[in-house]
Amino acid sequence: MDEIAATQLARRVEEHRQAIAERVASRLLRAFPELAHTLRLEENYSPVERMAEVAVRPLSDLIRAMLLFDALEIAETELRWARGVLPRWGVSYEHTTAMIRWYFEELSRLPLASEERAVAGEIERHLLSLMVRLYRTAESSSRTVPV
C-alpha cells in the first residue's frame, strides 16, 4: 500500500466521516428496512443517526486504522467478531457487504488523487474478499455465499 496515499486517504476519511456515515446509513435503511428493527433506538436518535453511529462510523474507523497502520489484517479480527455476533440481530452478509460497497462508493465521490483511489480500491477488495472467506467458512456446505 502506498504509505503517502494511505495517509492522505485516512485524512479524507476522517474529514468526511460524518457525511459519508449518514449517506450510507440512509441508503442501508432504504434498501433494507428490516435493519431498523435491529437498532436500539434512543429517543434522541433517528434511525439514520443510530445506523450511522453503530455501523457506518465504526467501519470508517476500521478503514482509517487499516490505512494509518498499513495493516489490512486489522479487518479480520473485526469482521470475524461481526460474523459471529451480528447475524443474531438480523444483520446478514448482504447487509454488511452492501455497507462496505456503498461506503467506498461515497468515498469515490470525493476528489481523490489517483494514488488514493488505488489504495481505496485495495482496501475495498480486501474487505469484500474477507467477507466472502469468513462467511463461506462459517456457512454449512449446503448453503453458498454469493460472490
List keywords for this structure.
about 150 residues, single chain, Globin-like, about 70% helix, mainly alpha, 6 helices
Descriptive notes:
The chain is mostly helical and 147 residues long. Helix content is 71%, strand content 0%. It contains 6 helices and no strands. Helix 2 crosses helix 5 (93-108). The longest helix has 25 residues, at 114-138. The chain starts with a helix and ends in a 9-residue tail after the last helix. 24% of the residues are buried.
Shape: globular
Enter the CATH topology name.
Globin-like
Q: List the secondary-structure elements in sequence, H or E.
A: HHHHHH
Helix tally equals 6
Measured by DSSP, the beta-strand proportion falls in: under 5%
How many strands?
0
Q: Point out poorly predicted stretches.
A: none
Helical content band: over 70%
Secondary structure class reads: mainly alpha
Give the termini separation: 24 Å
Question: How is the biggest beta sheet arranged?
Answer: none
Can you give the mean pLDDT? 90
